[in-house]
Design a protein that fits this description.
The chain has a domain at about 90-149: OB fold (Dihydrolipoamide Acetyltransferase, E2P), CATH 2.40.50.140. Helix content is about 20%, strand content about 25%. The chain has 2 helices and 7 strands.
Length: about 150
């Protein structure tokens, strides 16, 4: 007698495939039956409330805030250049004579400016009132032509 070419595992795989396709068809029919076709536009609309949450109710027109488009800033506002005198005044906030550097606190802008011992015209100590000019150094502003006031 001739044996069937189908093995047990082939039969099981075929049953599983048929079962899967049958379930898929049933799900498709269920979706068609429960489809929301014919819904109105209002039923499909979603709104955002004042807190940023999605809701199904439209916003209250009395709570509407009028915003002027000119008031909206998209970029950072330009900083106006403060006119600096060529000669500035300040107080020596820190100076280390052994290392040869320190910092001067500008009286006008209150910024701390680096000073090197080579830029001094006379010896300095902390809390001395000085006049100086500035130049752009490697790491920022540096004081030059520093004199006691």
């Amino acid at each position: 007698m001739a044996r069937s070419t189908e093995t047990f595992s082939k039969k099981e795989k075929e049953k599983a495939r048929l079962k899967k396709s049958k379930e898929k068809k049933e799900r498709a029919e269920e979706r068609k039956a429960n489809a929301g076709k014919g819904k109105s536009l209002e039923d499909m609309m979603a709104y955002i409330d004042e807190h940023g949450n999605i809701t199904s109710t439209p916003p209250d027109p009395s709570r509407k805030i009028k915003i002027n488009s000119e008031d909206i800033q998209i970029a950072v506002a330009k900083q106006e250049d403060i006119p600096y005198d060529t000669v500035r005044t300040g107080i020596v906030s820190f100076f280390n004579e052994s290392k040869g550097y320190g910092f001067i606190k500008d009286m006008q802008t209150q910024e701390s400016i680096f000073v090197h011992i080579n830029a001094l015209t006379e010896p300095l100590k902390e809390n001395n009132m000085v006049t100086f000019e500035t130049e752009q150094g490697q790491k920022g502003l540096s004081a030059i032509k520093v004199k006691k006031k």
